[in-house]
Amino acid sequence: MLWGISFDATPISGVVVEFVKTARHFREQGYQVHLDLGYDIKADKNAFFRPYRDEAAQLPHWIRLDRVEGLGEIPGYDQQFVSDVLRECVQEGAGEHLLTRVDAAARAISERIVETWERLDVSAVLVENGTLPENITYTMALHSAIERYGRRHRLGRFVLWRDHDLMWQSEPGIGKYGTFPYPSTVAPVNSPYIRYIALHEEARRRTLEWVPGLENIEVLPNTFTHAPAVPRHAAGSDGQPSAFRRDFGIPAGAPLIARFTRIIPQKRIDRDIHLVARLADRADVHLFVAGDTGESPEEHAGLVRLADSLGVGDRVVFGGPLAPHEADIGAARADGYSVRDLLAHADLASFLTSYDYESYGNPIGEAIASRVPYLTTRYQLYDTVYGDKGFRAPVMELTDGDLPTQSFVDSVAELILDERKREEMADFNHGLGKQHFGADRAGEVLGELLLPPMGERTRMSVVLPVYNEADNLPAVLNSLWQQRGPDGPLDKSLYEVVLVDNNSTDETVRIARRFAADHPELALHVVPEPEQGVACARKTGMDFASRRSARRELADAEQRFYLVSADADCRVDERWLWELMTAMESGKAAIGVCDYYYEAEHFAGRPRLWDAIQRTLRCRAVTFALFGGFPDGKGFAVERDAYEKVGGIEIFYQLQNGRFVNHLSDDWDFGILVRGSGEDITYVPASRVEINPRRVNHAIDEVITGRAYGSDGIIVMRDIRVQEPAEPAEGGPSGDLTEQQAQQAWEFSIKDFTPKNTILPVLLTPSLLDDRAVIEFFGASLAERLRRRIAEIKDEMRVVDFTPIHSYKTPSYRLYFEFADEIFARLRATVGEDIGHPPPLPECLRDVPEERFTEFVRYFCEDRESGEAHNYFGNGGVF
Known about the structure:
By secondary structure, this protein is of the alpha/beta class.
């Protein structure tokens, strides 16, 4: 969960809008988002302790307004106290008599902040403007809460602390916050839990001038969604104005200048009114001012009088507060108009602000993103943020006077009257804006900034995808905690757990966090993955661990780092990790594959089912020992550099009933990529994983019919967390299979197993056929004929754009049919006579003339439209 806190104490402002844009990146990663507007922080907005009313309607539906509970119960902490501290301690540099009360209140506030975060399972915090000394008591409390909460939960840098306004650029002329070096302000500190964010290099430079030793500060500019603003209701063919213009009394053809800002003296809206008056004799220019006229009634009244006195009262529209530029923010007005609607109808956007008040000029960025030309003053940081990057606009030089000069008015008039020039300027700025302020860039930067640090001694990250696993999770986590090495408990600093929550609705996440709190020696990270599917979750966890390990400097450059996959319904043996790492260290393989087993007691009274399972596992033990096998999500490890070499786990999609579904076989696909890249895979039989019997129990009907992982070429798996029926049918979880069912289950299991585990390895790595043990298994004659046939098929099938599993599935199926009798003979000789003979051929192949058998096998295996080959081989691999 993301907790946002704004020191702005207003429901909609530039600060809140930037929070929304940043929070969206968290939401896309599956975070819930809560926002404290800061009513209980800032004293000058007259909202202290005021309950929320309709503020939520002005924000996206996915943001929940919240606040720290119990602040009103803290003795002496109220609006007057905050005002007194600001005036006496910060502005006057006195107020020593208040410091004892400040310390006491800060301790009490810190306690309540931590209590709130604990209740909500907060995992990330975004602080907006917390350094601005409006309330140094609360800032001190926040620092304390961050340290305590971060230390307790081992969260790394879980806080992004961003200051939009800083002392040296917030009305410095009146010394609102004192003078440098601002002795009464709570300065940024080097904390292992906080990443400070500056909006541009100048802000970063000035912050470091103030706090020279600050190490954890990065630049992340305000970002925007770059999409041209389009009118929702354009003008009709009869020349009548659109709904927006009609509602605000703006003629259809009148040039429109947009100004969206707070209506206060520092914003200098009077300059826009003077500009409109100076343009009046050239065009019917209108000015739309979007802002709350009630914030400073005196300023609003003065501006109205000014417009009337200049003869443009009918051309200046005070449209009230519009919803922010971001499209999914709820509207502040009943008609639902937003700043984006205003920009869709505007010819120009204006930002004639005062020199030292506005720092970043979000209206300029929003105009650029909406493909609208802008005009501006050269305010204090204009060149730092926009001008030095090459953006083009009429710029009012404040050294030339306080109001628009003739040359500036002429440049604006030229734009107003020349549509082609406006379009060229807008297009240029729009493209440049994407490069510097694109929303995608923010997502990339945030993704890196939010990665928690990895322990210096950590060698393994165990990735555990979970979805509603509250029943199984305690035992699984306990088995990870109980890992042992050769001389006792495995050192917990050698490994960590990355639990990837795939939208659980039960107690899964709370159980994980409680386990982490009770076992602080073992690092456990909870990472969300919003796209449903175990493949997506496994990829997210692997990528998370890989990026963090790559950023760490190891003392020994020769050390290898391993990404380890586990399943949330399977328990691992106590030497699982140690055996896996030891084998991979000694053999330098890219992938280590574990051994899997079932506990016999779970199948008591079901001898036919148990026999089918055991035959499959015996075949697996023999072939994996020969060929190394392929990774299975239940338990494997991959060396980090090998993971990155092949591009990590790939998620691809198939159509099922007209909808895209993500492919289940990410582990097999990944193994194919690694093996195909020339890397080795090793089988580690001493690293053992117990398979949860529910995989068979709740999918037994699909196992019997070869549909355990879908059909017709679609590889998916149904939810197997269902409860057992009260009256199990024959063949159900408590009953054995019939002889016919057992034979069907075995045939689908062995048909799934054989192409994957005896043919695919040598198809990917023909050099295996030179290995003495492999030659002994196949026999010299069969090994040589397989080698020749693999070369022929590879030359024949030179298609290179298939996804990994499909680029090898077809040739594996073809080789199976061509060599099935001989391969089964070798399995009988090696594994046991009970392996039997190949299952019956598909009916369509039984009547094919012998001399054309190989030809029609090719047609059968390559017919992806019908999915017949997929259905024949099935997916008995659930065993």
